[in-house]
Amino acid sequence: MDPAALSWSLLCLLPGIILGDTNGGVRVVVKEDSDAILPCSPRTKENLSGALFDWRTNNLHTDVFMYQAGSVTIKAEEFKGRVSHFPHEVKNGNASIIIRNTKIEDGGIYTCDLPHLEPPQRFYIQLVVGASPKPNIVIVNVTEDRVQLKCEVQGASPKPEVEIQDSSGNVLPAEKSEVFERRRYTVILVTTVTKTGCFRCVAKQEEIHHETSAETYVPVYEDTCSKVDVTGWLSGYFLGVFSVVLPLLVAAKCIRIRNGGGDVTHQLQ
Ligand SMILES: *[C@@H]1O[C@H](CO)[C@@H](O)[C@H](O)[C@H]1NC(C)=O
Ligand SMILES: *[C@@H]1O[C@H](CO)[C@@H](O)[C@H](O)[C@H]1NC(C)=O
Ligand SMILES: *[C@@H]1O[C@H](CO)[C@@H](O)[C@H](O)[C@H]1NC(C)=O
Question: Contact 198/217 with Cβ under 8 angstroms?
Answer without folding.
Answer: yes
